[in-house]
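ARCHIVE RECORD
Type: protein–small molecule complex
Small molecule: glutamine
Source of inputs: curated submission
Record status: active
Notes field left blank by submitter.
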Amino acid sequence: MCRHAAWLGAPRTLASLIHEPPYGLLVQSYAPRRQRHGLINADGYGMGWYDPARPEPVRYRRSVPMWTDANLAALAEVARSTCLLAAVRSATVGMPVEESATAPFADGAWLLSHNGRVDRDAVKDLADGAESTCDSAWLAAAVFQRGRAGAELGEALADVVVRAGEKDPAARLNLLACDGASLVATVWGDTLFHQRHHDGVLVASEPLDDSPGWRAVPDRALLTVSGEDVTIQPL
Ligand code: GLN
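STRUCTURE (tokenized, with ligand):
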């Protein structure tokens, strides 16, 4: 995924990541400001959020450009949660354009998005199988496999990113994941920012607006947001 964003805090709608900010994901789908690789993000989009009515998050993925989905605005205006994740995709050359290759990938309560690329041979050893042949789907499967074996979200992300990065030194491995109670992100080759609010924290590949307080997360780092705590550790 080429641009992703998430919120953890007081309930907000998905429109707060997509339509409301001047540089939300809708604008980032056709005019990103900080994108280092690719020009637009027209190969699909997805979003996930948590609702007390079900144990697993709700997920909505499409393989069309975000701006072509006339039903999205109303859905995003009412889909509300304390934990939100959304992404727009610019498919890497050779990767399939299909819903199953589109973030967020999901397993149980976990949602995951990938901004970057990795040689699939570098990740195929890290997982038993993936829902799509897309490199991001393999990364997600490797993270989920570690979660099922008992790893915490941050531990699973860090292990997969470090191992994949060793095998493919040219890999870009910005992952963003959540479990409903925490947000975790890696920075490995692309941009990532976070912004504290009085009632929560925003995390995004690039700032959603020009308000003060957006801070860049350094490269090769793991960002963890849990409650009001934000920690950054080197990878
Ligand atoms: N490699 C992933 C894909 O093809 C992510 C692409 C990206 O971040 N631009 O979907």
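CURATOR ANNOTATION: The two ends are 21 Å apart (CA to CA).
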